[in-house]
Predict the structure.
Amino acid sequence: MIKVAIIGIGNRGRTYGKFLNKNKDVQIVALCEKNQDILLSYAKKWKVNNIFTSDAEFFACGKFADALVISTMDKDHFAHAMSALNVGYNLLLEKPVSPSIEECQQIANLAKEKNLKVVVCHVLRYAPYYRKIKEIIESGAIGKITHINHTENVGYWHFSHSYVRGNWRRSDQTTPSILAKCCHDADIIYWFTGKRCLNLTSQGKLEYFTKANKPSQAPHYCLDGCKYAKSCPYEARKIYYGITKHTFPYMIVNAKLVTGSSKPTLKLLKNCLKTSPYGRCVFDCDNNVMEQQVVNMQLEDDITSTLAMTAFSKKCYRKIHIYGTKGEIFGNDISGKLTLNVFAGKTKIIRPSVSTLSIHDSCDKNIINQFVNLLCGRSYDKGLTFIDTSLESHKVTILADEARISGLKVTVNKDI
């Protein structure tokens, strides 16, 4: 029986805990979460006796388990990972690891020194859609990859929640949006090509979600009688609980986050949005992260790649176009459909899944199961992403923001 502890019981921590709790080879033995209501609720649900609201107290008590899941805020990952490795934990570490390449490397170095495993949660590798693309590439059907064009459409509702109103709105407090949202995507490009990025340039902008665009007489909080409520797609009711003819409140799943309650009611949610950061006008926040950014990469073996992120899409999805010497692959993961064009050959439509969005849970479940296999000494999937591999995607997205700020081409890895 593998014993596991979890620090941070937000959305990701609850998801990983759900699948750990269902795994017959796992016992969750300790939880650390600063919100006492959430902590007590999940300690009861998962039958955990060792509970802590203080990370310092948690680590001071020594080693409770074989492994620790770190799903705290981005800015806390480095300190928590280093403390955990020094205590003797193997780690399942939520991405991004850190906004600092040096800190990412320090975690990798300490894990090697302690002979401990650090797996980073790049769950896209477990989606059937991306697995099928990898399979096609490895089959040789499109020949040698020459270019990859990949776009992360964040979704207007998701971006407003996380990157304008929410926890990832300020790069000085968390991480740049290109790192927080797209280290997954940089990892996918690395996974498909097997080639490191040699250098990159990047451009980005923040010009819409600013105070300069706040409508005249709009209140600070949406629920304070905003006269633009019907026409504004970012109005808090539409994002968090109100269904209209053309909108669905996707972010109602974050009711626990908004209210801080383990059992949020609609009444409590409405009341909290009158004072919560999540109820603010999107044009009256303190956000500073990019709402749109493009990264142009030169990879080894003369491969080029473009990674783009935008806030301005109706739905949250990724689209990709991979160009090869013998064919091309393109599609988007919201439809789950791929098109394979083989030059002077057939066009094939492939549906590896209904959609990546609908199977997010299965990706999370798979990474948990493979992590448990690793800890049990069983064979595990080759897609499991260890800290050494994750360094590449983190270098790309961290240096992308440096390139955006400087306006210069930045070296990522020296040519060999």
